[in-house]
Amino acid sequence: MADIRKLINQIAAEEAQLNNTQFLAPCVYKGLVRTKVSGIIYTFTPKPRNFEGWGIFQPITVPSQSQGTSIAELVDEPSLPQLAEYLKLLLPFRLRLSYSLQGKTWLAYPINESDAKQRIGNIKPVAVHLVTEGVAFECAIARYDGHTFWFEELDRRADPIVAENLRQAFKKQTPIEELRFKGITTEMRTAYDLATQRIANWQQQRDEKRLAAALKQGGGNLEKFSDRTDHWLVEWTTANGEHHTSAITKNDLTVISSGICLSGRDRDFDLQSLVGVIEQQDY
Q: Nearest-CA neighbor of 31 among 109, 161, 201, 147?
């Protein structure tokens, strides 16, 4: 019992000391900041709440002293030497930036898959936070704290031609299967593929919203659609639930084939007006 009381008193003393100690920590946008004292991790809500970057924080309330949220106030930004000393404590990784996820956070892929598997046990795209020099397909050095990757700097040793080749191919919308240049690796292809998939997903979402809006204005509802290179095959329903499948051009949503007999006048209508035409035929 005496040992337990001694431990409790020791922790209480350390927490009291923490309340008067400043600490350096990274913070993502609207995220939390953490510090470790005697093996115990303390988590704080930063003040101001919208801070994003590296900061020196002063605890205002320590977890065990408040039933509410523990708060640490930003008091300064670390100097470059301070930040360098902090980052040296973390594992360095070479990653290739793929695209920006949000703010200063980028999706990246390991430069060397076998090295990544050996060091962290798996091979997958990772989020890199606080990227201050984000350029698509550049090689970056990030530091890993066992849970999160933090940007340190762009890798000045990397061949800039590789990133430029990938950016040019991306600009031309070169399919992944046609991506070729001297020195290309599997890891480079994966980083490129991640970026192209993101654009494809974004395009699909935009197309879906466009088709759904046109049908909604006409009084119909989009069920699903599929890409047929030069047109869409759209499955939709009328207000009373009647199902139809129509072929629609991509540029102006002109009807190629309505799915019903319109006496060869299909192209006289667009997707929005087609809904009304079909509903009129139902009466």
A: 147
CA-based R_g, the chain, Å: 28
CB contact at 8 A, 188 and 195 = no
Q: pTM score, two decimals? A: 0.72
Give, as one character, the DSSP assignment of residue 266.
G
By C-alpha distance, which of 115, 113, 138, 140 is closest to 125?
113
Whose CA is closest to 44, among 67, 66, 70, 22? 70
Number of residues that make up the chain? 283
Whether the CB-CB separation of 209 and 185 falls below 8 Å is answered with no
pLDDT in tens, 142-157: 999 989 999 999 999 9
Contact 111, 142 (CB under 8 A): no
Distances (CA, A) of 233 to 29, 58, 208, 245, 261: 41, 59, 12, 7, 17
Give pLDDT tens digits for 72-104.
999 999 999 999 999 999 999 999 999 999 889
3-state SS string over 100-118?
EEECCEEEEEECCHHHHHH
Q: Which neighbouring-strand residues pair with 99? A: 107
3-state secondary structure of 201: helix
The secondary structure element, H or E, covering residue 43 is strand 40-47
Buried/exposed code over 104-127 (b: 16+ C-beta within 10 A; e: otherwise): bbbbbbbbebeebeeebeebeebe
Pairing of strands 149-154, 40-47: unpaired
